Amino acid sequence: MSFSKKTVNRIVRETLEMKYTNAEETWDDMMEKLSKSIGKPIECDDAGNYNVCECDPYHISIRPIVNDIFDVEIDKVSHPDRPMVKGFIGRKKYILIAIIIIAVGLISGFIMSLYSMIFVGLYFIMGYIYSAPPLRLRNYIFGTVFIGLGSSLAYFTGVFSGGEMLNWTQIMIGILILIALSMGTVVKDYKDYEGDKKEGVTNIFTYFGLEKGMKITTVLLIITFLLPFILIYHLIDFIVIIPIALTVVILFNLDRIKRKTQVTMIFFFIEILYVFLRVIGIINFL
Question: Which of 45, 91, 161, 206 has the most CB atoms at less than 10 Å from its CB?
């Protein structure tokens, strides 16, 4: 994935409202900080683009496709707008698309490094056994653990793209991704409740019921949104993150908020962006 200096500097200025007198020098400084954070050099090509993430998008696209193929009956109840439910695409064509994505993902992973190819392959396997029979791990109450594991594998795919060994910071980030997305993604089961209940899927909401499931999910969300304190713990971090966590909990438990999953994910990505900028040093409190 490549970004031009001009494009990213414009985005940085507009979103963070920073005023730079020497934009190119500022962006080079940012890339140097990011390079130190991830533990490998980031090179600029002849066109003036930085390769800031060598992890391809193909393996990230496979899970929703596998879900669509094997969750048609659930989607008819919970997600009637899905492509297969609406009849926009047939099962055979969808399977063919999945095979192409897997092939391209493995090849691109191999081009990056052997380790990347291995992690891409593991990610594909996790995506398949989560949704597809005979294991179909999403049918079990601990199914979201495999969402966290798959997301952690996707992260390590990018880390290993340069062939370097891991450092402790990278390992810790991978573990936090595993824990956070194992607990935080239970919120998705709220919107799938009716379809999951009809198809006999066991999750926190179908097993404990909606009321108790909401309470358990609230606790898991609080833990998830406070996990970044393991990495960052300046006073301002507490001032930023704790209100985000409280806002998520309040909105998740409001009856009039129907799109609870989408609202939670919006705040989740806001917090991820903040933590990312803190870890690589773009936001720094001296």
Answer: 161
